[in-house]
Amino acid sequence: MESIPYDKRSGKIWFNGKAVNWADANIHVLNHGLHYASCVFEGERVYDGEIFKLEEHTERLFYSAKRMGIKVPYTQKEINEACKNIVNIQKVKNGYVRPVIWRGSEMMAISAQKNKIHVAIATWEWGSYFDPKLKLKGIKLNISAWRRPNPNSIPWDTKAAGLYMICTLSKHEAESKGFTDSLMLDHDGYVAEATGANVFFKNQQGELHTPIPDSFLDGITRREVIKIAKAKGIKVVERKIKPEEMKDFVGCFLTGTAAEVTPVSEIDEYKFKICELISELNESYQSLVRKKTAA
What is the C-alpha separation between 240 and 214, in angstroms, rounded? Predict the structure, then answer.
């Protein structure tokens, strides 16, 4: 069934301090966030009515804003409460939350010191990021021609809008060729991440190997999965991984707020098995995110 366009949905959006009608959460076309990517955001999951790792997401949102020179006109506590309130207003049980902060329209040039800072939070019911049928047999990725930029060239450790343009380009190209997503290399040619998720590999010895997040986000889900793996006695190695090393791995999966734990069956010429270890990590992660209802 075709999804309702996001500007045609109903209900409320938290917008600059109050809940407004969905259709009234509008901004002017001449705003700095649109023209110069003066915008940071977060992606959060709702499980059984509760936002998973809300405080960590809000903390990262404020860190991103600070790195972009944006002073948020609310406290972290106020944003946390606003996220919870809008989820309750919208009666979202299992879905997604998108807080977003951007510079407004007072100045329309590179310089934007006088621009008002706007904040909005929207939420909606949302299922799996990847097709559940594909997740059962593993998704297929190509290798993108676009690379994660040198960390000296961008605020790489932020969730800033401008950093995702090459992700969109990469994913569009992958989908046009029949792949589900795309693996991105870093500026030195090492394995980095997928377009919106971190990547893990399993070797013959049962160890997990994952790239060092030194030019891309150290995802909140990534950190949780590492904790789960270590608690199970699984060795986790964070290191630089050359693309050709993928031939030596037997398993692969992605992690992310949207992706959760998603098995990968192919990356370009490299093939992987949907092994028991990956299935167990996925089950443990699902138990973690729904622990309040399981208790």
Answer: 10
